[in-house]
Amino acid sequence: MPDQSPPAPQGPTPELFSWEFAADPYPAYAWLREHAPVHRTKLPSGVEAWLVTRYADARQTLADNRLSKNPAHHDEPAHAKGKTGIPGERQADLMTHLLNIDPPDHTRLRRLVSKAFTPRRVAEFAPRVQELTDDLIDRFTASGNGSGNDSGSGTGTGTADLIHDFAFPLPIYAICDLLGVPREDQDDFRDWAGMMIRHGGGPRGGVARSVKKMRGYLAELIHRKREALPAEPAPGEDLISGLIRASDHGEHLTENEAAAMAFILLFAGFETTVNLIGNGTYALLTHPEERERLQRALAAGDRGLLETGVEELLRYDGPVELATWRFATEPVVIGGQRVETGDPVLVVLAAADRDPERFDGPDTLDLARRDNQHLGYGHGIHYCLGAPLARLEGQTALATLLTRLPDLRLAANPAELRWRGGLIMRGLRTLPVEFSPPCRGQG
Question: How are strands ordered across the β-sheet holding 67-68?
Answer without folding.
Answer: 38-42, 48-52, 344-347, 326-328, 67-68
